[in-house]
Amino acid sequence: MAVIDDHTHMFHGVLLATIFEAAALENEHRQSHFLQKLCTCFEREILEEIGEFLHIGKGLSKLYVTLNFGSATIARTCTVKHAPYNPIWNESFHVFCAYELKANEGLTIHVKDDLPLGAMVVGKAHIPPQVLLSGEEFDDWYDICSIHDSTQKRGKIKVRLRFIRVEDDPYIKWGGGWENPTLGCVRYSFFSEEKGNKIRLYQDAHMEDGFMPPIHLSDNQLHQPTRCWEDIYKAIVNAKHIIYIAGWSVYTKITLVRDMERMIPGAEGVTLGELLKKKSTEGVRVLLLVWDDRTSISVLGMRTPGVMQTHDENTQDFFKGTNVQCVLCPRNPDDGASFVQGIQTRLMFTHHQKTLVVDVEDDGFGSKFQGPSCEENGNMSDRITCNTTRRKLVAFLGGIDLCDGRYDTQSHSLFRTLGTSMHKDDFHQPCIEGSSEKGVGPREPWHDVHARIEGPCAWDVLYNFEQRWGRQAIGMKGALRNINDVPDLWPPVNCIDEDDKEAWNGQIFRSIDEGCVVGFPREPHIAASMGLVPGKDHTIERSIQDAYISAIRRARNFVYIENQYFIGGGSGWSTHNNEGAFQLVPTELTMKIVRKIEQGERFSVFIVVPM
Questions:
Q1: Which PANTHER family does the UniProt record give (predicted)?
Q2: Strand, helix or coil at 528?
Q3: Where residue 293 falls among pLDDT bands split at 50, 70, 90?
Q4: CATH number at residue 223
Q5: Does pLDDT of 47 surpass 70?
Q6: Domain at 8, CATH number
Q7: Is there a contact between 344 and 334 (Cβ–Cβ < 8 Å)?
Q8: Of 14, 54, 65, 205, which has the fewest beta carbons less than 10 angstroms from its beta carbon?
């Protein structure tokens, strides 16, 4: 599968790479000619220090390494400062690969010097395709050559490389399905796979009785409707210690319970905002992290709704002067972003996490496990037997924000519910002008999924919130409740035996960077073991992409993906292939289809992109 034809190679698998060090580098762009003439007797380090002090030349060297397949940068090291001759990185990478290259193209290793405006390529090393496709491990020094003339040497770089073809990967059995439960997790991920979870899945914010078609389960059972917002209401009402909410949008005027056929006593007409304020007066710690839409601003006392109409400013104003602490979180660029990139990040990128973490009454299962605190990495371990009844954490997460326009059922009515309790006070239609007039419609339907988690994974969701709060709630870290000091929550209690047929294995995945969280390890080898990758002066987690790739590679018969934002595989586009859409999911799906055709096996890919 590696060779497509005589002119093309397909690198489809995993690249294991370690960048050790470089030696005897020659960076012709580094020193100013003035300093070189004035101080020819000085070592380069001294020249850099003089230039830095006098603001002459380019200052201290900031060297890093990138690994490239064609136009795609698949990995990069951290920046090593003020080591112009012999920088040492000692960083390892586990990189999923799905790249089509010309027959003579292999892996390109660039040594770059970070400058105030952009970066300068010191030189490059080329690893031939036959070296990688052999599957052997190579640990050696390679020449660094000028990017303009391969005969001009610029030093050497020591690397260890091994490319594992997708069919030879022992940890992801290509097309092996999910029969082996020990191979179900993503190995290199910040949060480990955890056993002993109870998980409830939701379709839409609410499900009415009589769902069609019937879904048959084991033991001759039928799938029963699950009701997301009703369960969220019950959990919030039951909370005694914490209610932590993170959202793209949180709207205080929505009501969570609207089905008059099964109205919960006391819930009719209760808005989310009033409910949260009430719980905060009962001593519950209520914290909100809401995306700050930079386009929603106040001009001469008049508020503009913002491009995305998230009500972020209104939500913050609603809770001012109350015990509820609401923090608006912008997407700030990392320290290495350019001015233009910074503007794009602030205006075009959002926080898309939708999580709720609360404590609820425990059912008395009675087995403790060690949960994470904000100083730990969030992995569950060290179970201890204990017979006691305590409270437990429940986490809700998925695709449904607690905001207007999200309450819907499997019927997705456009007009019929406009005058009913479901939507008479919750009309959302940003796409059709004039539809918001009373009784006109249509409303915008909303279809999404969500989940409720009890068990170790709920503590991982809590830790995610603690990490974000520690970074983005400036000066408010003390607002987090120290769970270790809550006796009826700590130590946590197992919700179900790991061997129970209703128990789930679970693993939490994210797409996030160090600009949004605290607690990423600083040691490169620990970061690599958690699947974290260096960016420009910051660290990135992309475990969601890795989870997608792992699932697609394991798939035996079909893949179903429903996603509002389906774009990627940019390095393989015939045009505009340097636009930054480098995630590999579309390419992986293509490779799966091609391979199944070659093997004469039936395979189906279903991709649904909601309108």
A1: PHOSPHOLIPASE D, PHOSPHOLIPASE D ALPHA 1
A2: helix
A3: confident
A4: 3.30.870.10
A5: no
A6: 2.60.40.150
A7: no
A8: 54
